[in-house]
Structure formats: C-alpha cells, structure tokens
Amino acid sequence: MIRPRFIVRWQFIFCGLLLVAGLAGTLTRAELTEEEKKELFLKSREKMRTVASPTPPEESATPRPKPKPAKHPPAKKKRSATPRPTPEPEETPERTPRPAAQETPERHPTPEESTPARAVAATPAPRPAASVAPAASSAPAQVVIEKSGYQKPRGFSLLPFHLFGKHYTYLTSSVRREIDRAPVLRERWRFIIVHNSGTRQGNARIFDYYHRNVRRMTNGLAYHFVIGNGTSSGNGEIEVGNRWRRQINGGHVHSDYLNNISLGICLVGDFNRDQPTRAQLDSCEELIRYLRARCGKVEHNDIPVRPHREMNPPRWPTDCPGDAFPYRWFGQFR
To answer: According to the CATH classification, is domain 169-333 in 3.40.80.10?
Structure first.
C-alpha cells in the first residue's frame, strides 16, 4: 500500500518538471535565429489570401446618367410702355417756407469807398451786443423771438381806405399805388425792421446791383423799401423794392424765419458817424403808419416796429442802424 506522503512528494516533483519544460521551451523560442524568423514570416504570408474590396457605387460598370442643366426661369413679361396714372399727393401740414439761399446784407459799397482809407471808415466793425452807446441808453432790451412755426396768412388784407383822403408829404400817389397794388395777405407780416445802409450815399438801384452781383442774392435788393438821404436819391424819397411788389421774404436779417415775416426799411446813411435827416425820419414815419394800416393787425395789435440790432440773433450781433440813431424815435410805435 502506497503511503500518502510518497504521493504528495511525486506531485511536487511533477509540477517542478513541468515548470522546467515550460522555461526551456520559452528559451528555445527566444533563441530562434534571424533566418528562422524570416522563414516563419514568409510561410505566414503565403497562407494569407487577398480579399477584393467592394466597388464603390460611383465606380460601378453601369454609367450614371449625366445631370440635365437646370431650366431657366420663364422670362418676365415686359410691362406696357403706358405709364400708370400718378396718384395725387396728400395734403401735408404747412411748414415754414425757407428761402433758396440765406441773404444777410449788412453793408453796401459806394463810390466813396473806392479808396482803401474811406472803405475802412465807411464800414465800421460791429460792436458786441453788451456795449451800449450813450445815444442808445434809453433803448429797450433786445427782443427774443421764439420760433413756434410759420402760420399761413388767412385771406387778403383790405385796402386802407381811411388813408386815401389824408395829405402826405413823402408818400406820393405813385408810391401809394405800388403799395396798394401788392396782394398782401392778412397776418403775412409780423414785424417792421429799420436799418441803415452803412454808407453815406446810395439808392435802391445801387443796393440791388450790389446784392445781386456781389452778395449773389437771387432776388436782388434785400430790403422792401429804401429811403434816400439826398445824395443818390431825394432826401426822404421812398423807393419800393421788388420784394414788396412780389410779397416775398426779405434778406435783411440773419435769420430765415425772421426774413419770412419781417418787412425791411433801409435808411441811406452811416448812422455810426451821422444821424438820419429830419426828412428821412418823417418819411419813414409816414411809411410805417401806412404799412401798418395796409397789412392789418397781428393778434389784434399793430405790427411792432424794431431796430435791426434788437432783432438779429444774439450770435450775430450788429450795431445797425448805428449808435448815433435817435432810438427814442421808436417810442411812438410801441
């Protein structure tokens, strides 16, 4: 009978032999030469078989039909040459009419200003608005105009029949006919502004040439009326400008809005050096009173009369109608 201890010993011996055999096989495989490795590689490559790759649909034997070119969209039918009727424009709210070009005359050249010395003396530099001359100390403060939109005049003003029977010294019948012939609309004019020409001589024709050809004003003379001082026209003679006859805006203030609603009266002379003649002041008074009656009232009041220096915008100060002008004269129109 075999003992158990003997069996256990042989099992250990058998396991040890197996381990030794395994190690020997591993060492044998590791010791293969380069030639043996090459032969094994060649034999394994011969056993490999080539598998044909599937043919892609784009390269199949059956040719695909070529794509047909896209059809052009049908040409649009040409419209008939007969134009459609243009619809009538709708009525738009009334706006303030603006002149084609801003016209702001300040001074006018005359034959006296042909030499440089006289030209400098005849055109004084404008003084700032803050400085007030002694002659103008009694003048009121500058008027501030707030633009609230231009209101279209309503109907025509009636002729001042109550003035026809009066006697006028400077408003001749021909001047009154020209004033009355103009188609004045009610509340068309809201201010009357008095200027000086800044020159010692001149008349409406000379100023019109200067404004049209030098200042490039399309409508010529910037004022509605000119009153002479006895040099180029009669002392106190009233000349009616084309702007009054056509009832169009003036070009005598540096503001488009004020030019649309203000009548301009120019007294010939440089009133920084001289005062206007008595005839000029009387003639201007007759003209203003006639224009007030001709144009009618504005908001139940007579049209206000102001010097240019009070009406020009603050950023464009001017001394017109001059420091020597008797500003108390305006008090009769307040």
So the answer is: yes
Q: How far is CA 104 from the centre of its chain?
A: 18
**Tokens linked to 247:** 């009832």
**Pairwise CA distance, residues 28 & 247, whole Å:** 129
What is the distance between the terminal CA atoms of the chain, rounded to a whole angstrom?
Answer: 160
CA-CA distance, 97 to 278, in Å (whole number)?
Answer: 38
Ranges assigned E (strand) in the chain: 191-196, 225-229, 235-240, 262-267, 305-307
Distance CA 151, CA 189 (A): 11
Q: What is the 8-class DSSP label of residue 245? A: H
Q: What values do phi and psi take at 185, rounded to 5?
A: -90, 150
Sign of CA dihedral 126, 303, 98, 199: negative
Among 187, 168, 286, 181, CA closest to 227: 286
Structural tokens at position 2 = 């075999």
154-178 pLDDT, tens digit each = 567 666 655 556 789 999 999 999 9
Q: How far is CA 227 from CA 7, 68, 218, in A?
A: 157, 90, 22
Q: How far is CA 305 from CA 25, 244, 247, 330, in A?
A: 133, 17, 19, 7
Q: Are 199 and 124 in contact (CB under 8 A)?
A: no
Q: Domain segments of the chain: what residues?
A: 169-333
At 25, the pLDDT band (50, 70, 90 cuts) reads: low
Residue type, 320: C
Residue whose tokens read 């603006």: 98
For residue 195, list its beta bridge partners.
266
- pTM, two decimals, is 0.56
Which residue, chain included where needed, has tokens 């702001």? 104
